[in-house]
Every structure is written in structure tokens, then in C-alpha cells.
Amino acid sequence: MIQINSRIINSKNLWLFITYLFLVILTILTFVPIAYTISASFKPNTEIMSGGAHLIPKSFTLENYIIAWTAGSSGGVSSSRVTFAHYTLNSIILSLLTMCGSVLLTSMAAYCFQRGRFPGRVFLYNLFLATMFIAVGSVTLFPIVKLSVNLKINNLFGASLVQIFTTSAANLFLTIGYLKTISRELDDSAKIDGCSFFRTYLSIILPLSKPILATIALISFRFSWNDYLLPLVMTVGKPHTYPLVVGIVQLKNFGGEAAAQYNLLMAGTMFSILPMILIFVFMGRYYILGITQGALKG
Q: Is the dihedral angle over the CA atoms 280, 285, 288, 291 positive or is it negative?
């Protein structure tokens, strides 16, 4: 009996060791590229091109960040050009629009699907969830762009509109899972007090859904901020509307140099990833809490 218990304990310790080893390897694979990007953003381009894979720069410089922030889409440095300050503002506008639209659409749709009773509700919900498995860049990008051109919304606001409707399926799944944890007795009490279906959503469901809606806001903001392909095709030929991730690519050929300017590209990349890092450092626990609660009953 003692030998069996000893074997069970050893087996558990082995699996625990393998689990932690896997997590350590995964952490290293995640943070090494980020660490190298940070390091390369402080190196001259000659050091990067010569194979400088070391993390500590031999020639530390802040010039990359100065040039990257003041460089325009044409590679020039001038306050009259479209600079990274404009790109950053465009990204903030795009991400905030997508975030607000996603939260509003998702909360209302989830409430209707979870609390409403209408013909075809289950079919429509399943059909909506099926769009989770269709990537925008695979089969839908071309018709979306053609439609936006015909409707004359091939701009930053059009990109936000597409993002709102293409990211709502996964958000809807999480939100409905969360709404299942809210007792229907609250709906009945509100109905007895004379609240309509929409008034119940506004006064009861919406305030109680703050945790999952905060998570949806974070997911939507991150998706919009990091999205490259859709904003690229929706703003092509309009440098003044480029979001940050699109403007970063322009730094690679800064000034028409023969060699790619990877030092500026890395500095521009830091401008893009730093806000996301700060958001998840300070709000990561709300993100995890909402994901966990929304997925348990989804």
C-alpha cells in the first residue's frame, strides 16, 4: 500500500515537473522576441545588420525613437508631414470606436439571444457563432473591401465598422455564458415593477455585466490596435489615415535607403506594443476574470 502511494506521488511530481517545464519554455519563447525587439530598438542599424543577436547593445542610442516618432509616411522628417503622432492618434480613434461599438453590439445581442424568446433564435445564434471560424483575411476581405468602396466607407471609420461586426461572435459567446450566471428572477422582478424588455436590459442586466463587458472592451481594443491587414486595405493611398501598425512598415524603407532600416522598424514596433503591455499589466486580472466567468457556462 505504501509502495502504491509512493508511486502515485512520484507520478504526480513528474507530471507537475513536466507542466512547469513546459510553462517555462513557453514563457521563454514568448519573452525572448520581445526582449530582442526592445534591445534592437536602441541599436544602430549597422549593428543589427552585422548579426548583432546579443541583447545588450554595443552602441546604445535613443536616436531611433526620435527619428521614428518624427518620420512621415514618405520617409521625411518634418512637422508638416504625417508623423507617428498622427498614426498613434488614428490608432486610438480606431480602437476606441471598435471597442465602444463591440461592447454595445455584443451586450444587446447577447441579451436578446439569452433572454429573448423569438422564432429562429437558436438557429440565428448558431449561425452567428459559425462566423468565428471564418477569418477576415481568407475569403471575406475582397468582398468587404468592394462593398466598402461602393458604400464610400473605405476609410478608418469603415475599418472600425467591419472590425465591430467581425469580432462579435467570440465576444457574444463569452457574454451569453456570463448572462447565464445572472438569475432570471431579477428579470421577473423588474417585469413586475413595470420594466419593459429593453428597460430591464438597461437598468438590471447592463450594470451586472460590467466584468464581462470590461473583458470584451479589452479584447476589442487589443484586436483593433494590432490589426494590420484590414486597416491597410481600407486606408491604402491615404497616409493621413494610417493607424500605427500600418505606419510602422513605412519605416523599413525610411529615406529610400538601400538597406532596410530595422532599427527604426524596431523603435516603431515599441511604440505599438508598449500601450498593450501597459494595459495588460494593470488590467490583466479583469481580463482573466471575465474570460473565466464567461467561458464556464458558454
A: negative
CB within 8 A of 154, min separation 6: which ones?
Answer: 145, 148, 234, 235
The pLDDT of residue 97 is 93
The answer to whether the CB of 87 falls within 8 A of the CB of 189 is no
CA distance 178 to 171: 11
Q: Check: pTM over 0.70? Answer yes or no.
A: yes
pLDDT band at residue 82 under the 50/70/90 scheme: confident
Crossing angle of helices 84-115 and 63-70, rounded to 10°: 70
C-alpha cell at 81: 508631414
- To the nearest 10°, the Cα dihedral for 76, 78, 83, 84? 90
DSSP string, 156-198: HHHHHHHHHHHSHHHHHHHHHHHHTTS-THHHHHHHHTT--HH
Beta bridge partners of 77: 71
pLDDT tens, position by position, 139-160: 778 888 888 888 888 888 989 9
Domains and CATH numbers, the chain: 84-261+279-296 (1.10.3720.10)
pLDDT of amino acid 94: 93
| Nine-digit cell string for 180 | 447565464
Q: Which amino acid is at 283?
A: M
Surface-to-core class of residue 49, CB atoms within 10 Å of its CB (0-12 exposed, 13-18 middle, 19+ buried): middle
Q: How many residues does the chain have?
A: 298
Q: How far apart are the first and last CA of the chain?
A: 42
Contact by Cβ (8 Å): 43, 246 = no
